TrEMBL record:
Listed transmembrane segments: 7-25, 51-70, 77-94, 114-132, 144-165, 171-189
RNA-binding recorded as keyword: no
Keywords, ordered alphabetically: Membrane, Transmembrane, Transmembrane helix
Transmembrane among keywords: yes
Species assigned in the record: Flagellimonas meridianipacifica
Domain of life of the source: Bacteria
Protein name: DUF998 domain-containing protein
Length: 199
C-alpha cells in the first residue's frame, strides 16, 4: 500500500520536472520538420534518455493507479488506470520511430504518438474528473480545484481529439496540467483504500 502511494505520488511530482525539461529541450530545436528530426538524432543520447526516464515515471503512476483500482474497486480509478496504460503506448513510437529513420517515417511515428497521447489523456482526465467529483479525502476547496482542473483538461483534450483546435494551441494549458499532477501527488498521500462500489 505504501509503495503504491509512493509510486503514484513520486511519479506525479517528478513528471512535472521532466515535462519542464522537455519543453526547454524542444525550444532549442529548429522549427522545420527535417531540421528538428535531424536535431533529435544528433542529440539522441539526451532525447532517448529523457523519454526512457519519462516512460519509467509514467509506469510508476500506472502501477499506483492499478493498485488503487483493485483495492478501492472504484470505476474512476479503473478509468484512470486505462488512460495511463494508453499513455504508455506513446513512448515506443518515439523511441523506435525517431532514431535514424526517414523523415516520412518519423513524421508518421510522431502523428501516431500524438494521437495516442491525446486519447490517453482524454481517458485519464475522465477518470480524475469522476474521482474528484465525489472525493472525501481532500479539503472542500482543494477538491473543487481538482474537480475543476480535471474538467478543464478533459474538455481541452476532447476538442483536440475532435480536431477543433491543434495540439500546439492546447499547449497553452500546460501550467494547469502541472498543477493537476501536484494535486494528484498530494492526493496519493491523503487517500484511504477501503473498497467502494461507486465512483
Amino acid at each position: 500500500m505504501k509503495l503504491a502511494r509512493l509510486f503514484w505520488s513520486l511519479g506525479s511530482i517528478l513528471i512535472n520536472g521532466i515535462i519542464g525539461i522537455y519543453i526547454y529541450m524542444m525550444s532549442q530545436a529548429p522549427q522545420g520538420k527535417e531540421e528538428r528530426y535531424q536535431y533529435i538524432n544528433e542529440h539522441w543520447d539526451v532525447f532517448g534518455s529523457h523519454w526512457k526516464v519519462e516512460l519509467l515515471l509514467m509506469t510508476l503512476i500506472a502501477v499506483g493507479a492499478l493498485y488503487f483500482a483493485f483495492r478501492t474497486q472504484k470505476i474512476s480509478w479503473t478509468i484512470v488506470s486505462v488512460g495511463q496504460l494508453i499513455l504508455l503506448l506513446t513512448y515506443p513510437f518515439m523511441l523506435g520511430g525517431y532514431r535514424n529513420t526517414p523523415i516520412e517515417l518519423a513524421v508518421m511515428a510522431n502523428e501516431m504518438a500524438t494521437v495516442v497521447f491525446i486519447f490517453g489523456n482524454v481517458i485519464f482526465f475522465t477518470g480524475l474528473f469522476l474521482l474528484y467529483m465525489k472525493d472525501v479525502h481532500l479539503k472542500r476547496w482543494l477538491r473543487i480545484v481538482a474537480f475543476s482542473l480535471s474538467g478543464i483538461m478533459l474538455v481541452v483534450f476532447l476538442i483536440v481529439f475532435a480536431e477543433v483546435i491543434t495540439w500546439g494551441q492546447a499547449l497553452a494549458i500546460a501550467p494547469l496540467a502541472n498543477i493537476m499532477y501536484l494535486i494528484n501527488a498530494y492526493y496519493g498521500f491523503k487517500m484511504t483504500l477501503e473498497p467502494q462500489e461507486n465512483s
